[in-house]
Amino acid sequence: MTHPHPLHLLHPQHPQHPLHGRERELRAIEATLDRARGGRGGALVVAGDAGAGRTALLEAAVRAATPAFRTIGTTGVPGETGVPYAGLHRLLRPLAAETARLPPAHRGALGTIRAGTPSAARLVLYTAVCELLSLAARSGPVLCWADDVQWLDQGSLEVLAFAARRVQDEPVAVLFAARDDRDGGDGGDAGALAGIRRLRLAPLDEEASRRVCLDAVPGGGHTAGTGGGDLAEEIVDLACGRPLAIRELAAALTSGQLSGAAPPPRSLPAGSSLRALYRRRHLRLPAGARRLVLMAVAEEWLGAATMARAARADGIGPADLDAARESGLLRFEGEGVAVRNQLVRSSLWADASREERQDAHALLAEALAQEWQRPRRLWHLAAVAGEPDDRLAGELAEAAATSQRAGRYADSWRAWQRAATLTVEHGVRTDRFLAAAGDAWASGRSRRARAMLRQVRPPECDGTRAARAAVLRGQVEVAAGCPATAVPVLRDAAERLAGSDAEAALDALMWASEAADASGDTHAYLEIADRAASLPPAGGARGELMLAHLGGMAAMVRGRHREAAGRLGAAVRLGADIADPAARVWAALAAFALGDGPRTRALAAEAVASARRLGNAPIESYALLVAGRCEALLGHPPAPIAACHDGLRLARATRLHGHAVEQLATLALTAAFNGDAGAANAHLEPLTGTADRRGLTRAAAFGSWAPACLDLAADRPADAAARLRLPGGAGLAHLPARLFAVPHLVEALVRTGDHEGAAHAYERFRGWTDGIGAAAGTGTAPGRDALSRRCRALLAECDAEAEEHFTEALRLHEAAGAVFDLARTELLFGHRLRRGRRPRAARGHLRAALRIFERYGAAPWTAQARAELRAAGETVAPPPAPPAPPVPGRGSGTGGTRGPAPAPRAAANGFGTLTAQQAHIARMAAEGATNREIAARLLLSPRTIDHHLRNVFTRLGIRSRVELARLIR
After folding, report:
1. Which of 43, 264, 774, 961 lies 20 to 30 Å from 401, alpha-carbon distance?
2. What SMART domains does the record point to (predicted)?
């Protein structure tokens, strides 16, 4: 009999039980049920924090199993934890008929449980439950589930676990759901459930949390009054990936919060079950442990020395520390302790009395005795004061300014905020809230920045202050929200600043132009550039750079190439002498527009390093974004992977959603260039939908371009051409991406025989590259000139003309250092020569392409090159077998056995089992680059490069750079 697949009921969009972000867990449940249908049982423990969705997964499993399975279950109840076999008693009730058919010994053992007088021997009882499940499964598969097993009595839990470990040969699936609030991943049930597969529920990621929120919040949580933000985003941030917390927060929203008139919630509602859970845990602690927890809530992270001083001052002993540790409310990190997460922190602080809060602040003010802790000490003293106090506010503002100058934004924004709340005069208070917002933003706390901006109210805010607030609000939206929303905000702010501060107005227009470009609004971009040109002179090199950048980019869009080249060249020259990281990013973009690869890389690397030194997280993220994107389009695949992964980690950690989406798009495109469908699709999956919802047209363009590149790599040129020409395809809504995609479109159209379409597409690209190149001077953009030459070679009707263009393209690729583009051109050249019946000439180019593709691990392109070589009459050796694993303790250069160095274990391509990044570092080292030079190129530290090279030596079985050079040569 064929069973219909039931797991459509588990789909996240099921109308009654939406389960977003639990695909991995649903697949595991599906596999367990499928095995039981086939007569092979199994068991699974679903563990997670309170509110993580364990019960929802069990409910989904029951829905999926019905009606094919017979389902029986039990639930742990706190009041019955001490009652022997209470959980088993509940489980046995539906199985009375099967119990009556058991042998007398087993029937008697279960009968004593049903009668409430358990007296049977343990082994008899345990085997009786196994026989009962086997008997129940004779009429069809059985699903046995147990929820909240942390509250099951010990006897019932041990019986069920015993049975679960013995159902392999029965059509029985056993599912447990256990609360596990410990960082290590093992709850109190771990011993009883040993030997059973444990699946821990991680917090939902931001995208899944948002979908849960959009289901729960009326109207999807979009408001106009949350400081340019999104109510759903505020809820998601507070809920820390707990679906129950999201739903409880959504259910308690007021009409004011929904409309944007009132600020978003700062904690779970008073009637929340999760908040009640945290409150009970806190109240059960000894008095000293409760004070310790509240100190961690107030300070966020307590170092060991501070904790020791506080303990001595308040009589907190080791037993209190142990009790706090066991409560699950704290997490211990090296030499310090912190509250488990923001959800716990906000709940405990909301439930603390005013006296408890003041006691925690006072104790911390005493314990933070070091000079470097002065800003935090003042912050807690101010919290104790409570009432406005200009003297204390002034001291806090001074401490905030000191921290700000040192780049300690995580300290300075809090000090500014507290200083603002203690300040009497409205204007000064507004300035301090603005400073708090700016420093919170610089520290990577976009939610805090928005909260501070909400304190800048129009009655207390003159035009200049309101404009400054709008500029910051717009910057937050560009990186963390929706760039299309930021464009009018920033343009309006620029207008208000134009009469009093031309440089600030120009700065606002620069960020507005970035927002317009990210959202694909070319018309708005040109208007912004024109308005910038009409502003009064800003003065200074930074102002000149911004004007040159905007004017040059606008001129390039309008086809005024000579003007564009002059202005962009000026921006590049100015960028070399300006330390400001944002200005260096804009200079890098200008160099990239000119096709100047070396200056693009140098300026982007300097921008990343400068922002990192300053501690400015959004600018560092922006610099990494630009560095990765430019490097990807310059033809060096490993480098953008390094920059983009670094940028993606930073963007996700700081909730810069726009930057994260753009990094995913660049990673997807880079993987697609290599033909790596698995990696490309893995990056495209979280990108799909998110880019459109946030209006990130540039990212969506890259995300649409990537599948076309995969089609080309898989030798599906017709599919690639269709993708690139469809409305909404690669870059059609974004001008720069549309231009960058032209060489791929030309290749796809030529390979499908549409030479007329290819020639028409190429004209746009040729007008751009030739125009900029002629205006800027020859040799400035060899990479782009090479691609242009490749297009002309593909379009050439005469073989001699094609050979001339291909040969020049190869020379230009080498001059640009675009190794992967070089290999693509070698492959196309070889194909043309073979088709022209010149197989001997073709083989040299195809072999060169094959070597590079193998080095990069580009499997589809390697397969194409091998096929072309075979067609050209060359016998191609099979791909090299993976090398043997390294022998521990040998060949690392850092110790091990003495004697001759082992033979290199590299494959024929010279790189063995190296990762793409290790291979790229190895290649540069073999060419003579120092660790510092490699670090600058890849935007990493020299220490990281040294670490990678040590791993390279170990994997290849060599001990020096000389051996590495010989091996790769």
Report:
1. 264
2. HTH_LUXR
